[in-house]
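Standup notes
- DV: blocked on the single-chain target, sequence here:
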Amino acid sequence: MNKVVLIGRLTKDPELRYTTSNVAAASFTLAVNRTFQNQNGVREADFINIVMWRKQAETAKKYLSKGSLIAVEGRIQTRNYDGADGKKVYVTEVVADNFEFLESKGQRGANTDIEFNQDVPTADVSDEPYIDFGDSIELSDDDIAF
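- DV (later): unblocked, structure below
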């Protein structure tokens, strides 16, 4: 079974792109607080890459922004590609099946100035997982399962 449920805040506005077959894909990073504090008494966060497809991707772009608190349900997916320097790049991300808004639009406005401490050690994953793929994501509709 491959199932993930996360609650966190967006670290930046969702980025919306379209495949060559005009399928919408949105990506963003979700900051998820850990349930414990480190040795210095600071609660750290993990920064999880999220991908949404089709109508859900367009809805995310339209209504979500940096600081939005959401719940995401989906599955973990891994992939790899050859980077510009010729080294293999490994990416782990959550492909969202569902998401829910956890605060009203008025509450979201109060959270747009949140500073995220991204100095927390995390997996070596690019901030822009599609940067080496050009302007579009090359997938066919047959490659996407819901």
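- Follow-up: The domain at 4-128 is CATH 2.40.50.140 (OB fold (Dihydrolipoamide Acetyltransferase, E2P)).
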